[in-house]
Amino acid sequence: MPESKTSLSTASPPPSSPHGLPSDPSVIRPQKLSPLTAASKAPPSTESLTIKVHDSLDGAVPGVLHLPHIFTKAQNPSIHSRTAAILLSGAGGGLVGPSSIYLGLATKLASLRDGIPTLRLDYRYPARNKYCVADVHAAMNYLSKTHSVTRFVLVGWSFGGAPVFTVGGSDPRVVGCATVASQTAETEGVRRLPPRPVLLMHGTEDQTLDPWCSRSLYER
Fold first, then answer.
1. Strand order of the sheet with strand 174-180?
2. Mean pLDDT, all residues of the chain
3. ω before 195 within 30° of 0 (cis)?
4. Taking a C-beta distance cutoff of 8 angstroms, is the pair 202, 180 a contact?
5. Is the pTM of this model over 0.85?
6. pLDDT for position 2
7. Are residues 147 and 73 in contact, defined by beta-carbon separation less than 8 angstroms?
């Protein structure tokens, strides 16, 4: 059995060029979604984004925004949700999450009767928390400016727990966090989240990051 880990972060210098959008023909969009009792009849729109990031390396981070239909009809913030979700992947970056679950999750959240704008966000430099945190802040600022979003729920998988808890623990705009099989390294911000809700999910047979990681986060 391979040795389990507690971190997928890296301290190595960023590469000379940022991480790009993956082009993986093996990733298949689900053919159909399970029914939602509170779903809107109008499907959400999707938009590919390139969001500028201003830090020591600058650059831009790619993402895909799933936008409820009401946002495309009227931009009056008083008539639609002011809360958005941002979904973050693991140490390899990407836009689909574990087993491509972010594709369906983003569509379902944006399809609710009171739809939640949902952004699947990549990283410029995966596994380097400092730059990934800047990516998340840039995405939050973009959604605030373009769609009057004032509250955010952050969701992270594996390494993604590091930017989720780093941003969540320091930015009051974050109203909740959830992680799937999070690492423990660079997650000190989880201590500053209460009384805001936190959801921790971790498979007991995980052979990449030990389930102890999520138990440890819960006990902090």
1. 45-52, 60-67, 118-121, 83-88, 151-157, 174-180, 198-201
2. 87
3. yes
4. yes
5. no
6. 47
7. no
Distance CA 177, CA 190 (A): 9
Neighbours of 13 (CB within 10 A): 8
Residue-wise pLDDT for 93-106, tens only, equals 999 999 999 999 99
Specify whether the backbone of 146 is left (phi greater than 0), alpha (psi in -120 to 50) or beta.
alpha
Alpha carbon 176 to chain centroid, angstroms: 12
User: Is the CB of residue 187 less than 8 Å from the CB of residue 166?
Assistant: yes
Q: Map residue 53 onto helix, strand or coil.
A: coil
Sorting pLDDT into bands at 50, 70 and 90, what band is 79?
low
Paired sense of beta strands 45-52 and 60-67, if any: antiparallel
Q: Which residue has the tokens 């009792």?
A: 37
The pLDDT of residue 22 is above 60: no
Residue-level pLDDT at 163: 98
Which amino acid makes up residue 220? Answer: R
Specify the DSSP element, H or E, that contains 72. Answer: helix 69-73
Three-state SS annotation for 106-173: HHHHHHECCCCCEEEECCCCCCCHHHHHHHHHHHHHHHHHHHCCCEEEEEEEHHHHHHHHHHHCCCCC
Q: What are phi and psi of 5, to 5 degrees?
A: -125, 170
Amino acid at 119: L
The answer, yes or no, to whether residue 176 has pLDDT greater than 60, is yes
Gap between the terminal Cα atoms of the chain? 29
